[in-house]
C-alpha cells in the first residue's frame, strides 16, 4: 500500500470525502489499515504486515477547539488585563523610592543638610495637590494619609498599618512605627541598629502551575509579591554592583515585541524587524567609530556578546582545535569574570589565562602584558586574544586601548574591548577621550541594559570586520526551510550569532531612543558622571576618609589605617536603616567601600543624604581626632 497517497485507497477515500464534505455528519469512524513494509536481514527479505486503527471523533475535536480558543483573547480582555497589570506596576513604582533598595524595609525619615528631605507623612503614596488614586480599590492618599481597597493599606503621618495578607503593593508587607519596621510572618524586622530577615516557603513560593487556570486578579496579586522580595535595582539608593534600570517605553517595547511576535532573525520572515536591529547595531558602531562594514547583534547580555566575539576570535586566530591547549588569553586583574567563563563554553577550557596586573590608576599594565606575551612565545604558546576594558566593574577604570592595540598588532592577536558597563558614556563629550583607540578593536561588547536603561537581557556585540562574524555563525538551513526565499546579500541576524528563535529585543532599545531622543540619555549619563565627581569632592574633604578619584561613575572610599573589619563596620553603619545599598570590593589587596551612581532615578538630593550618612557613621565610630584628607 502506498501510505503517502492514502486518499487513493477505497476506505480512505470514504473517510477523506466525509471529512471534507460540508454536510459532514458527526460520527466516529474506525477503519482497519493494513501497512506493509519490508527490510533485509542476512540477505533475506521479510514482509511484515501491521494492523492499526485510525479513530476520529468530531465531538472530541470540538471540545479541544473550544478550550484552545481561550488563548485567543478579545480586545476587551486584553484591555482589562493591561489595566490591571499597569495598576500593579504603578503601585510598585510609586513606592519604589520609599522602600529599602533590597526590599522588605521602609527607611526612616532623612534630612538633607539643614532642610528636611522628607517631611512627616510623605512615606505614603502621594501625587498631585493632595491625592492620587490608582485604579479601583487600589490606592488613595491625601497629604498625611494613604488608603486602599479591601485588605490593603491605611497610614498616618508616621506609621503604616496593613490589613491581613497585604500592604502597600504586595502581600504580607509592612507594619511600621517610628523606629521599627515589621512585615508578615518570618519576614523582616528592623530597628535603628538591626535588619533581620527570614522568609518562609509559603511566602516566597509562586502560584503553582495547575490543571485549570485562575483569574487575572489572582495571577497579578501573586506576581506583585515579587516587588516585595526583590533587590530593587531601579531604587535611587541602589548603589551596588552595576544596577539595571528599565524605562516605561522599554516595557512597552517588550509588550509590542511579544504581542506581534515576529521571527526577527531572518529577512524572509520579517524584514522590518531585521532592519530595526541592524539600525541599532550600526548606530552603536558609529558611536565607537566603527566602519559600515562592521556587523553585530543584540544578545541576552554582555557575557553572550563577549562569547560571540570570542568565538569569532577563536575561529580566525586558532582554527585548529589541537592548538586550543596552547592558546593564551590575556586579561587584567580587574577584567569581568564573565570573560574567562566563556572559554569553557567555547570548548577552550584548556586554554591558558594570564591575568595582567594593573597600574596605580587601575589600568592594565602594558609593559607587563608585553613581558607575558614574550615569555609565552618563547615557550611555544599561542597568544591569540587580549581583552581591554573601558569601565572596569570594580573601579570604573579604563585600560589604555591604543597601547594594547599596538601590542596586539605586533603579535597578531585579536583585541576585544569589554565596554559593557562604561560603553555608553561615549555619548558624553566629557568622556569621549576615554574611548580613544576603541575604533581599532576587533570586537566590542556593550550592554544597553546598563547605559541605555533597557531591561535585563539586552547586550550587544560588534565585530569590526563583519564578514568574520558571519563566517563563524552562518546557519545552514534544514530541508524544512528549503522553500524559503533567501538572498545571499541579506545579512540575517541568525547568521551573526549562535542564537536562533531569540526574543525580538530591538523595540526595548529603539522605542526609548525614538521617544526621548539621544540627548536625554546623554544628559542622564552625564549627570551620573557629575554626581560621582560631586561625591568624590565632598568625601575628599571629610576627616578620616580616603577616596579614589572616579574615572566614570564609580567611587571607592575607606577609612585608612584601620582594619578591614572596621571598614566593614562602616558599611554596616551606612546601610543599616536600609536607605542605601552599597557593597565592598578589594582592589590590589585593599578593601574599599564601593559606590556606583548609575540609576537614572538617583539625583543630587540622594547623594547629599548619602554623604550625611557617611559623616554620621564616621562620627558614631569615634575614631581618633586625626584629619585624613586623602585622594587615591
From TrEMBL:
Cellular component, GO, one term: cytoplasm
Cofactor names: pyridoxal 5'-phosphate
Pfam families membership: Pyridoxal_deC (PF00282)
Organism: Branchiostoma lanceolatum (Common lancelet)
GO MF entries: carboxy-lyase activity; pyridoxal phosphate binding
Modified residues (N6-(pyridoxal phosphate)lysine): 450
Polar residues biased stretches: 124-134, 142-155, 177-197
Family: Belongs to the group II decarboxylase family.
Gene label: HDC
Protein name, UniProt field: HDC protein
Amino acid at each position: 500500500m502506498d501510505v503517502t497517497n492514502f486518499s487513493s485507497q477505497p476506505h480512505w477515500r470514504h473517510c477523506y470525502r466525509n471529512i471534507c464534505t460540508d454536510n459532514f455528519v458527526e460520527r466516529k469512524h474506525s477503519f482497519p489499515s493494513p501497512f506493509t513494509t519490508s527490510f533485509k536481514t542476512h540477505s533475506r527479505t521479510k514482509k511484515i504486515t501491521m494492523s492499526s486503527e485510525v479513530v476520529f471523533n468530531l465531538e472530541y475535536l470540538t471540545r479541544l477547539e473550544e478550550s484552545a480558543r481561550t488563548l485567543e483573547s478579545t480586545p476587551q480582555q486584553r484591555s482589562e488585563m493591561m489595566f490591571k497589570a499597569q495598576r500593579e506596576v504603578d503601585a510598585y513604582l510609586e513606592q519604589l523610592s520609599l522602600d529599602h533598595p533590597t526590599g522588605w524595609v521602609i527607611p526612616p525619615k532623612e534630612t538633607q543638610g539643614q532642610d528636611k528631605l522628607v517631611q512627616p507623612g510623605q512615606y505614603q503614596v502621594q501625587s498631585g495637590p493632595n491625592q492620587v488614586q490608582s485604579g479601583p480599590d487600589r490606592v488613595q492618599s491625601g497629604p498625611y494619609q494613604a488608603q486602599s481597597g479591601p485588605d490593603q493599606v491605611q497610614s498616618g503621618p508616621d506609621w503604616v498599618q496593613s490589613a491581613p495578607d497585604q500592604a502597600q503593593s504586595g502581600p504580607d508587607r509592612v507594619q511600621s512605627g517610628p523606629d521599627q519596621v515589621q512585615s508578615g510572618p518570618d519576614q523582616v524586622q528592623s530597628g535603628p541598629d538591626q535588619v533581620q530577615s527570614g522568609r518562609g516557603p509559603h511566602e516566597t513560593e509562586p502560584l503553582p502551575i495547575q490543571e485549570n487556570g485562575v483569574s487575572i486578579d489572582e495571577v497579578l496579586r501573586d506576581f506583585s509579591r515579587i516587588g516585595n522580595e526583590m533587590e530593587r535595582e531601579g531604587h535611587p539608593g541602589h548603589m551596588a554592583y552595576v544596577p539595571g534600570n528599565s524605562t516605561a517605553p522599554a516595557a512597552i517595547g517588550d509588550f509590542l515585541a511579544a504581542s506581534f511576535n515576529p521571527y526577527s532573525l531572518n529577512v524572509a520572515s520579517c524584514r522590518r524587524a531585521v532592519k530595526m536591529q541592524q539600525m541599532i547595531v550600526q548606530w552603536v558602531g558609529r558611536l565607537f567609530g566603527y566602519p559600515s562594514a562592521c556587523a553585530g547583534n543584540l544578545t541576552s547580555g554582555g557575557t553572550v556578546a563577549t562569547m560571540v566575539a570570542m568565538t569569532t576570535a577563536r575561529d580566525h586566530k586558532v582554527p585548529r582545535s589541537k592548538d586550543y591547549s596552547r592558546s593564551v588569553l590575556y586579561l587584567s586583574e580587574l577584567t569581568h569574570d564573565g570573560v574567562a567563563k566563556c572559554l569553557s563554553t567555547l570548548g577552550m577550557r584548556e586554554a591558558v589565562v594570564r591575568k595582567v596586573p594593573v597600574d596605580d590608576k587601575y589600568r592594565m599594565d602594558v609593559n607587563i602584558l608585553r613581558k607575558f606575551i614574550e615569555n609565552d612565545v618563547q615557550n611555544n604558546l599561542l597568544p591569540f586574544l587580549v581583552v581591554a576594558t573601558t569601565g572596569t566593574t570594580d573601579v570604573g577604570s579604563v585600560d589604555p586601548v591604543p597601547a594594547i592595540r599596538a601590542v596586539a598588532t605586533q603579535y597578531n592577536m585579536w583585541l576585544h574591548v569589554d565596554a559593557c558597563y562604561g560603553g555608553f558614556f561615549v555619548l558624553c563629550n566629557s568622556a569621549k577621550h576615554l574611548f580613544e583607540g576603541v575604533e581599532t578593536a576587533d570586537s566590542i561588547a556593550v550592554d544597553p541594559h546598563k547605559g541605555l536603561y533597557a531591561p535585563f537581557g539586552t547586550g550587544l556585540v560588534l565585530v569590526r570586520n563583519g564578514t568574520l562574524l558571519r563566517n563563524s555563525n552562518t546557519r545552514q538551513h534544514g530541508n524544512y526551510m528549503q522553500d524559503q526565499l533567501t538572498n545571499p546579500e541579506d545579512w540575517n541576524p541568525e547568521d551573526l550569532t549562535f542564537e536562533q528563535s531569540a526574543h525580538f529585543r530591538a523595540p526595548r532599545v529603539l522605542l526609548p531612543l525614538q521617544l526621548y531622543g539621544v540627548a536625554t540619555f546623554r544628559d542622564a549619563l552625564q549627570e551620573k558622571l557629575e554626581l560621582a565627581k560631586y561625591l568624590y569632592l565632598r568625601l575628599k574633604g571629610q576627616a578620616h576618609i580616603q577616596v579614589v578619584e572616579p574615572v566614570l561613575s564609580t567611587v571607592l572610599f575607606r577609612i585608612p589605617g584601620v582594619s578591614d573589619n572596621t571598614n566593614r563596620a562602616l558599611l554596616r553603619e551606612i546601610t543599616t536603616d536600609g536607605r542605601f545599598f552599597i557593597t565592598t570590593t578589594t582592589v590590589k589587596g585593599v578593601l574599599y567601600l564601593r559606590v556606583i551612581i548609575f540609576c537614572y532615578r538617583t539625583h543630587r538630593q540622594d547623594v547629599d543624604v548619602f554623604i550625611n550618612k557617611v559623616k554620621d557613621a564616621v562620627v558614631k565610630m569615634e575614631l581618633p581626632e586625626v584629619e585624613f584628607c586623602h585622594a587615591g
